Prior knowledge:
By secondary structure, this protein is mostly helical. It is 49% helix and 9% strand.
Amino acid sequence: AAADNMNNDPRHTFDNLKGVLLFNCAGGMNNKLRNPGKLSLSSTWDEWLLFVLSPVLALLDALLKTESFANWIFSRTKTPENVSQTLRNIYTDPDRVDNELVNDILRPSEDDGAIDVFVATLTGDPGRGPVELLPAVRPDVRLGVLWGFEDKFTPAYGPIARYLDSLSTTAPDQCRFERVTGGHVLHDDVPDVARGWLDRTLAWAFKE
């Protein structure tokens, strides 16, 4: 991770790095492998959900490591109909989902080794999330985060969003957090809003 390298690897100190701008930064692609730790009444809803679903998810991981099941689910996932419907659920404006977008997403699924990437994404180590990584970032590096109110995949009031929102309150010189009307793919769903935010936040990040 860049944050780890920034502090621990002298070859990659990122001395010129001024800021990091993020869209809907929720965590790894495979958060089911995260250990929620000891649960309590104060645990977040996703920690409880992960605990409840962990046996089912463990079974799914085991099945995905068998070639026949992996091929079966991959072939049913990479259809134009499935991808189109998934995107229409992600975008706040379904009309932005056209054949060109669907084909662009599907094209890598025909590459050699595509199924291996698919399985690795669903079963591999997700890496560390924002809560673990941010303490490793240099304090002079500014962090900007934009989140969509209508994001169905990484909720705007989920635990990571709340953490980053609170960070913008406790450390406003280091972190800026903003929620806007939009979904999961803000740069494509509401490009004018995203571009305006990028311009403002880049100016702030490079401010001396």
